[in-house]
């Protein structure tokens, strides 16, 4: 039958996830501290052994055997050493049993403090080792309590830490027992233990949730090129496919939007816009500003800035509520975007811009937003798709009337 002492050690090992050998070494260190408090001093070299059969700790005073003693705390003469061991020789060591019969209250208190401190240090080291290789990962957490805006969470049933207010999703409510997913940004080792920098508003949280929800993203077939996020409100995500047979946007959205909806639900209803990434900066900026239709773009690659001209009815869409759409598009593309009314350009400039290198259907501003939308709904987005077609051919496109086909043909001719 296991003794109470060993049972307590095993229970401590299970609760704290600390190896038994490490717990025993901690207790040995505490025994040394207690002995030094009552009977010895810091200069002595002590060794402690534990006998599991008798459950007794034996303390040995270790001294070096020398011809001439210069430090009585660490050295002993050959003559004195042979009183304990007749085979003792100069240059060797002798271990003298100095185990006391009892300890005083202060010594016991010192031992207790050593045990508490050592166990806390062991816990910190184990937690650090458990989490240091998990930076930039998704972590499951259980909310324990909320105090003064800070959320105390338990990570993987191993460590309790704080999700600070500035790392929370704005207006998201937390309650005890709630299960949430967090992004582990960094693990730092401090004197007070491992400090975990966790977040709910980091853009990489969206990336990790997409990897969790979408196999194509996890496998690398669909690549997340950029993320722009305003936590709790809206995110824009640029995606591309490494396989021409896979539609990156369709993979992320899922059937009936179920995949992206699962991610949105985890983010407290945050809206997620998935767009097609492009090497063509102009096309990329146009797509990033969706649902707004861009009329003309003037890009300054050197200054990473672009003037975006839109029709008056498109300007509110381009800017977005409180400037959110253009702000996210700027973060996503890396360009500072200035939204301007096309009316601010004179007619000659508009004509010149429209005539120069027109590639996208959305650049044919004279068609009007409704007609451009009809073409895009028919999967026609580039001027090249309509070149060489007659008016009759264009009129066969679903949703296009004969008079609209005539207008389209005229604009294609101008663009060519």
Secondary structure layout:
Blueprint lengths: L3 H13 L3 H19 L7 E6 L4 E11 L8 E3 H7 L8 E5 L7 H27 L5 E11 L2 E6 L3 E5 L15 E12 L2 E7 L3 H11 L1 H5 L2 E9 L3 E8 L6 H6 L4 H9 L4 E6 L4 H8 L7 E5 L4 E6 L4 H5 L4 H10 L2 E6 L5 H9 L13 H9 L13 H5 L6 H14 L1
Parallel strand pairs: 2-3, 11-12, 14-15
Antiparallel strand pairs: 1-2, 2-4, 5-6, 5-8, 6-7, 8-9, 10-11, 13-14
Helix pairs in contact: 2-4, 5-8, 9-11
Brief overview:
By secondary structure, this protein is an alpha+beta fold. The chain contains 15 helices and 15 strands.
Q: Separation of termini?
A: 94 Å
The radius of gyration is 36 Å
- Quickly name the level 1 CATH class of the largest domain: Alpha Beta
* Helix fraction bin: 25-40%
Counted by DSSP, the helix tally is: 15
Mean pLDDT: 83
Q: What is the assigned CATH homologous superfamily of the largest domain? A: NusA, N-terminal domain
Shape: rod-shaped
Number of domains: 4
Structural class: alpha+beta
Main β-sheet description: 5 strands, antiparallel
CATH architecture of the largest domain: 2-Layer Sandwich
Q: Which strand-content bin applies to the residues?
A: 25-35%
* Number of strand segments: 15
């Amino acid at each position: 039958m296991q003794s109470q002492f060993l049972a307590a050690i095993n229970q401590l090992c299970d609760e704290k996830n600390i190896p038994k050998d490490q717990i025993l070494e901690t207790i040995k260190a505490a025994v040394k501290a207690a002995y030094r408090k009552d009977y010895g001093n810091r200069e002595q070299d002590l060794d402690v052994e534990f006998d599991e059969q008798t459950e007794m700790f034996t303390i040995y005073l270790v001294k070096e055997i020398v011809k001439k003693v210069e430090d009585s705390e660490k050295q002993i003469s050959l003559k004195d050493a042979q009183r304990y061991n007749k085979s003792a020789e100069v240059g060797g060591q002798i271990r003298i049993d100095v185990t006391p019969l009892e300890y005083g209250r202060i010594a016991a208190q010192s031992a207790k403090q050593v045990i508490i401190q050592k166990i806390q240090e062991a816990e910190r080291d184990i937690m650090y080792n458990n989490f240091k290789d998990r930076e930039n990962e998704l972590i499951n957490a259980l909310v324990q309590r909320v105090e003064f805006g800070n959320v105390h969470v338990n990570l993987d049933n191993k460590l309790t830490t704080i999700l600070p207010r500035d790392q929370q999703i704005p207006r998201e409510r937390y309650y005890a027992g709630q299960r949430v997913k967090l992004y582990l940004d960094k693990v730092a080792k401090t004197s007070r233990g491992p400090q975990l920098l966790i977040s709910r508003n980091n853009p990489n949280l969206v990336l990790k949730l997409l990897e969790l929800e979408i196999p194509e993203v996890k496998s690398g077939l669909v690549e997340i090129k950029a993320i722009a996020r305003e936590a709790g409100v809206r995110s824009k995500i640029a995606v591309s496919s490494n396989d021409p047979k896979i539609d990156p946007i369709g993979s992320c959205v899922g059937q009936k939007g179920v995949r992206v909806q699962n991610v949105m639900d985890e983010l407290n209803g945050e809206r997620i816009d998935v767009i097609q990434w492009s090497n063509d900066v102009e096309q990329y900026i146009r797509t990033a500003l969706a649902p707004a239709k861009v009329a003309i773009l003037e890009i300054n690659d050197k200054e990473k800035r672009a003037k975006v001209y839109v029709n008056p009815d498109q300007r509110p869409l381009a800017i977005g509520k409180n400037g959110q759409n253009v702000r996210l598009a700027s973060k996503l593309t890396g360009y500072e975007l200035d939204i301007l009314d096309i009316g601010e350009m004179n007619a000659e400039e508009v004509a010149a811009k429209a005539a120069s290198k027109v590639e996208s259907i959305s650049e044919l501003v004279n068609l009007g937003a409704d007609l451009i939308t009809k073409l895009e709904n028919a999967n026609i987005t580039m001027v090249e798709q309509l070149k060489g077609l007659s008016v009759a051919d264009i009129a066969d496109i679903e949703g296009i009337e004969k008079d609209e086909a005539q207008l389209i043909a005229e604009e294609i001719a101008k663009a060519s």
